[in-house]
Amino acid sequence: MKMKSIILSTAAGVVAASAAGAKDMTIVSWGGAYSASQDAAYHQPYMAANPDVNIINDESSAEAVAKLRAMAEAGNTTWDVVDVVASDAIRLCDEGLAMEIDPDTMLADAPDGTKASEDFGDLLVSECFIPQIVYSTTFAYRTDVDAWGGKEPSNICDVFDLEAFPGKRSLEKRPINNMEWALLCDGVAKDEVYDVLGTEEGQQQALAKLDTIKDEVIWWSAGADTPQLLADGEVVMGSTYNGRLFALIEEQKQPVKMMWDAQVFDLDGWIIPANLSDERKQAALDYIMFATDTQRLADQAKYISYGPARASSAPLVGKHAELGIDMAPHMPTDPENAKNTFLYNYEFWADYRDDIDAKFQAWLAQ
Amino acid sequence: MANTADSSQDIAHSAPVTGPVLGNDGRPLKASLAKSLRRQKLRALGLIAPLLIFVLLTFIAPIADMLFRSVENNIVGDVLPRTVVALQDWDETSGELPDNATFKAMALDLKEAVEDKSHTRLGSRLNYEQSGISSLFRQTGRKVKRLDVEETTDFVAAFEDMNKKWVDVENWQTIKAFSGRFTDGYFLAAADLTKGPEGIERVPENEQIYYTLLLRTLKMSLIITFSCILLGYPIAFLLATLPLRTSNLLLILVLLPFWTSLLVRTSAWKVLLQQQGVINDTLVWLGLVADNARLELINNQTGTIIAMTHILLPFMILPLFSVMKTIPPSYVRAAKSLGANDWTAFWRVYFPQSVPGIGAGSILCFILSIGYYITPEIVGGTKGVFISNRIAYHISSSLNWGLAAALGTLLLVVVLGLYWLYDKFVGIDNVKLG
């Protein structure tokens, strides 16, 4: 009799436990320090407030577009919320793989009542995209290069100056950003860069400028490459995402400094896959409403040096959770860092990406 | 089969004297034999059925589906059915815009397409052929909702008002050129060709890439295969001739890298080969290389060849070893006793018997290296990447699956061609795995 009741209560317990874990939510992101910052700032508080939700982390954001398309073709989308860069969000929206979001009804207002559409402002670059952070692709350099004779690079064009700043550089193995920087340093005015880059001559001009440093460039494809190359002394300067460089400089204390000149702003944020069941869609929207409110976005900046996408979050950015240093001066959006910035033109690259990429890759292979 | 049995019985009835041999049950022996053979065949088929179905479902079907994408082009006809019909009468070489009715057809098609957002998908598809069409469709999609088809008469002006690119003949030429249900566009692109006004022509020199990459892939795979033979042959020879206990230990050493993750091995090469890495540091310390002239061993073809030779070496050693194990040592002893010196005995007697192992190892190494992309991506820089890296890019990043499928098909055809050449000159029956 006693045995029976034990078995019954165990069975009841198992049923209860599985019922509690019934609302699994798969959130896809980039992994590493970035996912850790989201876990601390969004997932943990959300699960504390909603004990019936179990968040499963997937680190597939780098292949999100291809995987979402494959899932849609198979008719079985297993992801609920996906973290992607803005250009991927535009692509997913174009392909009909992400659902459209109405910011004013689906996202939280700012604490002072400002509508979400106004709070995010220009950063809402696609109907399907909910911006989360502003990050930048920018340069850093080693501070112990003898050949530079005490000089330090301070201008984007120093990257192209092999005489004053000899040594290997690392640049991303794709045309985006590199072509713009090359034109800027070849005498093209900032507001004309994309007009010039849209022409055949402009593309040749940019590649010709890049050609002057081609032999001294190591091309990276993963964001972690440049920090590693800088730490090893393989390169003397290189471009990558500013958060990676923050970790290299402030957490690992490497002899490396930031160079913010002509940093290129880009956005990262959420999309919700199209064609989710109503129940899952509601759950995903509920999470998004929570995770993109003013306080949550400001909280994320405690763990990683990316700027919150809401205007109302900026004043709330505090100190780093472990290092205890002020985060504001490390944000790409800090006025001191943002003296000369460049805004990634999504529309232009959506149009020219395939064409220019073919030319860029052919140039690389020569 | 049953018919055969019946007919043979008929024969048995009609010609009882010279009829077929009958079995104990009075049925013709031939029919009984055929029946039992058939049962055996069915049983055999039943036994391999799970594997057959598995291979069909998980290997043949997906590959066939993927290859089909290299020619499939339904999207234009599905999204713009009226426009495609209207465009048939338009002479694209005239240099003039299509007529008002075609523009109206486009307006009707787009209004429907906007409902399920297929217009942006079409834009992405056509943007592969001509830059700018993606934004053209995206922007027009937003505005066309407000266009009143009943009220409008001058559709050309209405479209020009929505976006100036609509009065650019080139965009219409692209739409017409790719309006068919099937397209050769992906294969042309994969062969560095394009459809120009005067038919098929080569793309400008600054965009040619796939031919270079294909050639490089083949060349470097051959180099890697030969380095594997050069390094693997002596090791396999040693393994096959040493006493069993020692050779087993050495075999484990050969297999050890096999059990380590591919990424770990490749990254280890990065640490070793880079300019501030272990090898260069040692060379500088020994004074063989000046500190300011460190060797470039990585992010180029050298890096890819070194790392991939290391990774593929076991695939060469194992078939070689298993073939060499079967060569009786008495043959070499006999050759020597008949007066051959060490070299002649090896070259004339031992080596020819090990050739099937070289063949098997070479095919394995070559075919594996031709499709590799992780290692070249990590250590290859720009000069050491293979065509598979571009296929991976088009699958996962640019989403141009049609082009990826065309590149994959080309690679498959080239490999099959090489296989045919190999069979013709070396003979595929001259390959042994043990």
Summarize the structure.
The complex is a heterodimer of chains A (366) and B (434). Chain A is an alpha/beta fold and 366 residues long.
Jot down its keywords.
heterodimer, A: 366 residues, alpha/beta, D-Maltodextrin-Binding Protein, domain 2, 2 domains, ten-stranded mixed beta sheet, 14 helices, 10 strands, 41% helix, 17% strand, globular, B: 434 residues, mainly alpha, MetI-like fold, 3 domains, two-stranded antiparallel sheet, 2% strand, flat, disordered N terminus
Oligomer: heterodimer
What would you give as the CATH superfamily of the largest domain in chain A?
A: Periplasmic binding protein-like II
Which series of helices and strands of chain A comes N to C? HEHEHEHHHEEHHHEHEHEHHEEH
- Give me the count of strands of chain A: 10
Largest beta-sheet characterization of chain A = 10 strands, mixed
Number of helices of chain A: 14
Can you tell me the residue ranges of chain A where pLDDT is under 50 for at least 5 consecutive residues? Answer: 13-21
Describe the structure.
The complex is a heterodimer of chains A (366) and B (434). By secondary structure, chain A is of the alpha/beta class. Chain A has two domains: 197 residues, Periplasmic binding protein-like II (D-Maltodextrin-Binding Protein, domain 2, 3-Layer(aba) Sandwich); 156 residues, D-Maltodextrin-Binding Protein, domain 2 (3-Layer(aba) Sandwich). In chain A, 41% of the residues lie in helices and 17% in strands. Chain A has 14 helices and ten strands. In chain A, strands 1, 2, 3, 4, 5, 6, 7, 8, 9 and 10 form a ten-stranded mixed β-sheet that branches. In chain A, helix 2 links the parallel strand 1 and strand 2. In chain A, helix 2 packs antiparallel against helix 13 and helix 3 runs parallel beside helix 4. The longest helix of chain A is centred in the C-terminal third of the chain and has 20 residues. Chain A is globular, with a radius of gyration of 23 Å. The termini of chain A are far apart. About 2% of the residues of chain A have low confidence. With 434 residues, chain B is an all-alpha fold. Chain B folds into three domains: 67 residues, no CATH class; 110 residues, no CATH class; 221 residues, Orthogonal Bundle (MetI-like fold), CATH 1.10.3720. Chain B has a two-stranded antiparallel sheet with strand order 1-2. In chain B, a hairpin with a 2-residue loop joins strand 1 and strand 2. The radius of gyration of chain B is 32 Å and the shape is flat. The interface between A and B is large, with 36 and 39 residues.
